[in-house]
Amino acid sequence: MKYLISLILRKVPRKYLQLINRPLLKIAGLLLRGNKVTCPIINRSYRKFLPYGRVHPRPNALCPDSLSLERHRLLWLFLKDKTNFFSESLHFLHIAPEQCFMKPFEKQHQKGYITADLESPLAKVKMDVHKIPFEENTFDVAMCNHVMEHVENDIQAMGEIYRTLKPGGWAIIQIPFFNPVPETTFEDRSITDPKEREKVYGQDDHVRLYGKDYPDRLRKAGFKVTEDDYVHTLSEDDVVRYALPGNEVIYFCEKI
Predict the structure, then answer these.
(1) Which residues contact 147 (CB under 8 A, 6 or more apart)?
(2) Strands 125-126 vs 139-145: parallel, antiparallel or unpaired
(3) How far is CA 244 from the centre of its chain?
(4) How crowded is residue 47: how many other Cβ atoms within 10 Å of its Cβ?
(5) pLDDT in tens, 30-51
(6) Cis link prior to 182 (omega < 30° from 0)?
(7) In 3-state terms, what secondary structure has residue 106?
(8) Average pLDDT over residues 46-68
(9) Domains of the chain, with CATH numbers?
(10) Are 79 and 171 within 8 A, CB to CB?
(11) Distance (Å, whole) CA 212 – CA 102
């Protein structure tokens, strides 16, 4: 199963996967029902989650019904525990929206919930993150996860998110790290071959390898950045129960 999932992720473009994955995985969800792990987004339990990953599939990662991964389940718990996200109706920009979040986020924020993506057929707005088509000070909240490693100019894209947030607004902007994490972010625009990009950046559609200076890049775009080690405040039982990532830092970015 893990090798099949890896092959599909490597060969099928994301925009097509988003159209076909949910009905196919519903069957797996029925077969995996149990009480070992729980997806907090849909409050449903399983014997285990599915493996997931393009190169080296991680075991117990993908919820077959919500389509959440480890990082999504962690973000859900963080939003509920440490923000006003589920206690207020917000004007919210969700860039490259994850399927596991879309229905519950729209239920919470209704017309204030705006999904945007360059290619996704599920998003409401077709948008290039380098030039966000909204006025300054529009949104209370923005979320943009695992996008910056794909874009040509990440500082410009971060700056666009900052521009469209209201003063006092906040964003969560996550990126992947690959061990060993370098001290500084590496990018070389002369590297265009997909195989070489995978070797250097960890994935063939990435254009940079982020280092420990990532929060400084967010600050360069204007944000006040809090590096929240939230997962380590949770009990070991919860980490296992929700199948959470072991070392995911949440980058909470505020427009002051």
Answers:
(1) 95, 96, 129, 157, 175
(2) unpaired
(3) 14
(4) 12
(5) 889 999 999 999 999 999 999 9
(6) no
(7) helix
(8) 92
(9) 2-68 (no CATH), 71-254 (3.40.50.150)
(10) no
(11) 30
